[in-house]
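New to this. Help decode the following:
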Amino acid sequence: MSKELLYKIFVVFIGTGCMMVGPFFVNFLLGKILSVIGLALLTVQTQRTKSYNLSLLNVVGICGYLYSIFTQWIILKSY
């Protein structure tokens, strides 16, 4: 497989797919994890196209989802 095909499959399609599915399950841990994966993969795309403002938004989104995952994990662990 060429680098371009791998880029399209993993970054564009899987990243977009995760971002399309993740928000529907955002109340669950799986939805947050899918959103983090999707944003991380799409950040690669925004870096490639030099859309640094979108890269910053993706990083902030990743931090928000990681914070939510961490707090959800702490709450579940306390029961």
Observations:
- Residues 1 and 66 are 33 Å apart (CA to CA).
- The chain is about 85% helix and 0% strand.
- The chain has a mean pLDDT of 92.
- The radius of gyration is 14 Å.
